[in-house]
């Protein structure tokens, strides 16, 4: 992706549409380039002005006597194509089109954007935009602010992408207040050429970038993002805010999995499996960025708290516990050293409360002891300003100590807003200082989770020996009948071909079939109605369990037919299955629904008929490693029940993990599957007794043999 150097490392820039009019985008953008002290040549393009900001102008890009690396286009939409064509002819390699009036307006705008991309491709250029706020390069040897945002952002180690120009302006203001500096910034607008994936690839290799942050409104190529993010996040934290989490209009689905697959779950699953840190809000994202730019990565989750007031410490303790952090047990030596200089009223256990009389010297000595304690992985410092102590003195003391240790220090100050406005700029290497304890505890949790992600092995995407031919024939036969749901026995056949432990079952239509099926399956058995359009069998009296002999089976068959007739269900629309009775155990559900953009969306959770009520499920995306599958199962609330409680034996959870991987292989190799529900799978202590009890598979119009 070195071709993006033409965007972020140009040696010469032309501003096409530079203006003499105060307040215009063309004038402000040129002013920003000058004020940020761009290390290169600048060529304003304006056919009516001789000078702008005391710089000689040129009527057109073709009149510029030197090579131009990057052109910033700020002209009316009607002139953009002509200008870009001229740029291509003159050998310009990078374009940032600020102008709006393209795909975002529909109609002619869509055509105009298509023509724009054709010109860019013809000349081998790279394009950011159109309809964007511009780009920034904070590289020390470049220093280019080609945006029209007010003020000058700081140079630093965070690369930021925004799909919203307006939000980009707000980010500039907030990051400057927090003293977060940029290595790069890109407002991508319509993403006609340069996408978030392009930027992620470029920043992954950039030695000036330590943290990557993204505000996303949509995913253009989520599978490419998955591969890039998984590799990059092992080396650099990626923090994402994704808007549109509650968008309406998700497609109706008849499966449990489809019904619970809200529009946002695929994105959540993708980000979780790639190690990307997802922030819920812009404020939370900035809190996390601040921590990663100012703190080393902790080696554990044991937190010590240092305070001069009990209330904030209690709140911080509660927040730490809620985030899954451990309150460190201080060593005897640490407590002894603290007692040597703190007042008798101080609390020497964790949290360490030095009481309101604590001075900057108290903070300095106490923090050093906590950081030196081998039982402590990170420290949260709380400060509530009494009248006689200046918050600035405390912050300076904390910073001084923090410089000598390689453990994270995070603090929250109950100080006046003036302190937060002034201090970050005064002491750039200070530890992050937040307003409230919840924010401090939250970033500590994210730092630790990132440590776990870095330590986690890659995992393996397993490929099992399966019978694809049987599945292909089954799907082809179903497609010939118009696709839709497979007959249940055919659905069992598909799972059996992929190595699932399915219950033995036979289809019956007459009493004579029934008697033979009972003998072949072996009592006790289960009788089920099996129709393509029947979703919830139990709701219509379509399931009879634990049938012990032929007489009970015959009675159950006749009674079930009568129940279905009373409910107006035509016999032509259903068949019956005689199925082996599984051993008692714990019920789980596996499932898949096809997302138009993200592909197969996998589900695992607590199963049974209440699955949509309890909603104890988690989702994943393909490719799915063995570690991903295990993490999915372990994340559901009902997982402790599978491990055994109150004297119960644990069930064979490895069967569930393997079945989830087999399901991932199935839906990866056959693209025409729209939905699958495997509910329940009965897990027992003995893996040989685990069984798939029920399954529904719905196909789209066609099923492809291989991925």
Protein architecture, described:
The chain has 24 helices and 31 strands. The chain is α/β, with parallel strands linked by helices. The protein has 4 domains: 2-209, 3-Layer(aba) Sandwich (Rossmann fold); 296-455, 3-Layer(aba) Sandwich (Rossmann fold); 504-581, ATP-grasp fold, A domain (Dna Ligase, domain 1, 2-Layer Sandwich); 586-699, ATP-grasp fold, B domain (D-amino Acid Aminotransferase, Chain A, domain 1). The protein has a 7-stranded mixed beta sheet, sandwiched between helices. Strands 21, 26, 27, 28, 29, 30 and 31 form a 7-stranded antiparallel beta sheet that branches. Strand 19 (409-413), helix 15 (417-426) and strand 20 (433-434) form a beta-alpha-beta unit. It is flat. It starts with a helix and ends in an 8-residue tail after the last strand. Mean pLDDT is 90; it is low at 247-254 and 702-707.
In total, how many domains does the architecture comprise? 4
Q: Judging by the overall fold, what is the CATH architecture of the largest domain? A: 3-Layer(aba) Sandwich
Overall pLDDT metric: 90
Write down the CATH topology of the largest domain.
Rossmann fold
Main sheet overview = 7 strands, mixed
What structural class do helix, strand and pairing data support?
Answer: alpha/beta
Helix content: 25-40%
Extended strand count: 31
Q: What is the CATH domain class of the largest domain?
A: Alpha Beta
Q: What radius of gyration results from the CA coordinates? A: 32 Å
CATH superfamily of the largest domain: NAD(P)-binding Rossmann-like Domain
The residue ranges in which pLDDT falls below 50 over 5 or more consecutive positions are: 247-254, 702-707
CA-CA gap between termini = 28 Å
Shape: flat
């Amino acid at each position: 992706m070195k071709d993006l150097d033409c965007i972020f490392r140009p040696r010469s820039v032309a501003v096409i549409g530079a203006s003499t009019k105060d307040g215009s985008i063309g004038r402000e953008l040129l002013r920003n380039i000058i004020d940020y002290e761009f290390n290169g040549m600048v060529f304003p393009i304006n056919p009516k002005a001789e000078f702008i900001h005391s710089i000689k102008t040129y009527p057109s890009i073709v009149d510029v006597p030197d090579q131009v690396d990057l052109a910033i286009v700020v002209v009316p939409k009607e002139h953009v194509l002509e200008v870009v064509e001229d740029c291509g002819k003159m050998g310009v390699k990078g374009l940032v089109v600020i102008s709006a009036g393209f795909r975002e307006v529909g109609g002619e705008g869509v055509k105009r954007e298509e023509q724009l991309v054709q010109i860019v491709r013809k000349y081998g250029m790279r394009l950011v935009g159109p309809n964007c706020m511009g780009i920034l390069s904070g590289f020390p040897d470049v220093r280019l602010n080609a945006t029209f945002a007010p003020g000058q952002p700081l140079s630093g180690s965070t690369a930021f992408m925004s799909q919203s120009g307006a939000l980009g302006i707000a980010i500039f203001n907030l990051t400057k207040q927090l003293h977060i500096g940029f290595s790069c910034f890109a407002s991508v607008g319509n993403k006609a050429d340069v996408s978030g994936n392009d930027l992620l690839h470029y920043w992954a290799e950039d030695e000036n970038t330590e943290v990557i942050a993204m505000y996303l409104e949509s995913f253009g190529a989520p599978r490419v993002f998955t591969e890039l993010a998984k590799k990059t996040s092992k080396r650099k934290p990626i923090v994402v805010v994704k808007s549109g989490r509650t968008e309406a209009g998700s497609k109706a689905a008849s499966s449990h999995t489809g019904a619970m697959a809200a529009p946002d779950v695929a994105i959540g699953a993708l980000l979780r499996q790639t190690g990307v840190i997802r922030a819920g809000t812009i404020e939370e994202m900035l809190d996390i960025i601040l921590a990663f730019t100012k703190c080393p990565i902790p080696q554990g989750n044991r937190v010590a708290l240092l305070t001069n007031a009990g209330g904030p410490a209690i709140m911080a303790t509660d927040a730490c516990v809620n985030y899954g952090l451990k309150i460190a047990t201080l060593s005897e030596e640490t407590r002894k050293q603290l007692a040597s200089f703190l007042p008798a009223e101080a609390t020497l256990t964790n949290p360490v409360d030095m009481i309101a009389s604590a001075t900057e010297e108290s903070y300095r000595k106490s923090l050093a002891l906590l950081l030196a304690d081998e039982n402590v992985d990170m420290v949260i410092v709380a400060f509530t300003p009494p009248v006689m102590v200046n918050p600035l003195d405390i912050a300076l003391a904390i910073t001084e100590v923090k410089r000598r240790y390689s453990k994270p220090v995070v603090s929250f100050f109950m100080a006046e807003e003036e302190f937060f406005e002034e201090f970050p700029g005064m002491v750039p290497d200070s530890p992050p200082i937040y307003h409230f304890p919840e924010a401090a505890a939250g970033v500590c949790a994210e730092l630790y989770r990132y440590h776990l992600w870095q330590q986690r092995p890659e995992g393996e995407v397993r490929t099992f020996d399966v019978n694809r031919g049987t599945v292909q024939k089954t799907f082809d036969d179903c497609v010939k009948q118009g696709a839709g749901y497979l007959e249940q026995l055919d659905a069992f056949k598909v799972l059996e071909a992929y190595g699932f432990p399915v219950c033995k079952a036979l289809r019956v239509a007459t009493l004579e079939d029934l008697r033979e099926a009972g003998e072949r399956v072996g009592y006790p058995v289960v009788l089920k109605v099996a129709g393509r359009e029947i979703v919830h069998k139990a709701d219509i009296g379509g399931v009879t369990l634990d049938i012990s002999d032929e007489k009970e089976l015959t009675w159950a068959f006749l009674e079930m037919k009568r129940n279905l007739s009373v409910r107006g269900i035509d016999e032509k629309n259903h068949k019956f299955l005689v199925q082996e009775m599984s051993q008692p155990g714990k019920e789980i559900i596996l499932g898949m629904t096809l997302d138009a953009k993200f592909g197969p969306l996998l589900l695992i959770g607590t199963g049974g008929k209440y699955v949509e009520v309890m909603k104890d499920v988690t989702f994943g995306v393909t490719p799915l490693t063995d570690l991903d599958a295990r993490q999915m199962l372990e994340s559901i609330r009902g997982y402790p029940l599978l491990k055994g409680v109150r004297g119960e034996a644990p069930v064979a959870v490895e069967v569930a993990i393997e079945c989830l991987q087999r399901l991932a292989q199935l839906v990866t190799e056959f693209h025409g599957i729209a939905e699958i529900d495997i509910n329940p799978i009965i897990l027992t202590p003995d893996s040989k007794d685990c069984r798939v009890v029920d399954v529904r598979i719905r196909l789209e119009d066609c099923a492809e043999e291989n991925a």
